[in-house]
Design goal:
Elements (H helix, E strand, L loop, with lengths): L7 H13 L3 E5 L5 H6 L5 E6 L2 H10 L5 E5 L4 H5 E6 L4 E6 L6 H9 L4 E6 L4 E2 L10 E3 L4 H10 L3 E12 L4 H10 L2 E11 L2 E10 L1
Length: 210
């Protein structure tokens, strides 16, 4: 089982996860679970998602915090296929398959309460694809930014009005393309930190709704 081991990028992002975690947190592309586990120290409840079933299996086995739950999902796909109902009093989550709900009243309640997060974290695969088969842990598509673009096109739908997303990406990704995508989706950003390592710069962005 191969899971993305925490590197310089992970530790840089972790610093801001510690600072901004609260309430309900989503760790997208959770990998080793380092950000989800860090967020759990301050958050009420954390959901960790990853497209890689081995990463999800690894996290479920190795991360024991009771306020963290892991699911396999291609970005926000799991929320499109299921209702995630969060009870802020009990601090627990209930999951309902949209196709299996027959009770109209229950459906009406769930539709009115879509899940929204106080913080969404994403350390995406951001390198340009080199070989025919993409390394999903490292490569974000042929240009490197495709996965992050898909995330940015949807992230606003899952943020609370005062919610924020904290993302990390590299100078190997097209930074202007990412900035344009943020603005196109009625979002705004602040650059929290820029760090040079080896042959690249790492950027951490703080993203909110306009």
């Amino acid at each position: 089982m191969t899971v993305y081991e925490p590197q310089e990028d992970s530790f840089l992002l972790q610093k801001f996860v510690k600072k901004y975690s609260k309430g309900l947190v989503l760790d997208m592309g959770t990998g080793s679970g380092i950000q989800a586990q860090t967020a759990a120290e301050k958050a009420d409840l954390v959901l960790g998602l990853d497209i890689d079933k081995d990463a999800v299996k690894y996290c479920k086995k190795n991360i024991q915090e009771k306020n963290v739950h892991f699911f396999k999902s291609n970005l926000f796909q799991i929320f499109e296929e299921n209702f995630f109902f969060y009870d802020p009093v009990e601090k627990r989550i209930e999951v309902y398959d949209k196709k299996k709900i027959k009770d109209k009243e229950q459906l009406r309640v769930l539709v009115k309460k879509p899940i929204k997060f106080d913080l969404i974290i994403f350390n995406p695969p951001y390198l340009p694809q080199e070989l025919k088969e993409r390394d999903i842990a490292l490569e974000g598509g042929k240009k490197g930014y495709e996965v992050l673009e898909r995330f940015l096109n949807k992230v606003g739908d899952y943020l609370k009005p005062e919610g924020r997303a904290v993302i990390l990406f590299s100078s190997f990704t097209n930074r202007q393309r990412i900035n344009d995508c943020i603005h196109k989706n009625d979002l705004k950003y602040i650059e929290l930190e820029k760090k040079h390592i080896f042959f690249e710069d790492l950027y951490v962005y703080y993203i909110t709704k306009k």
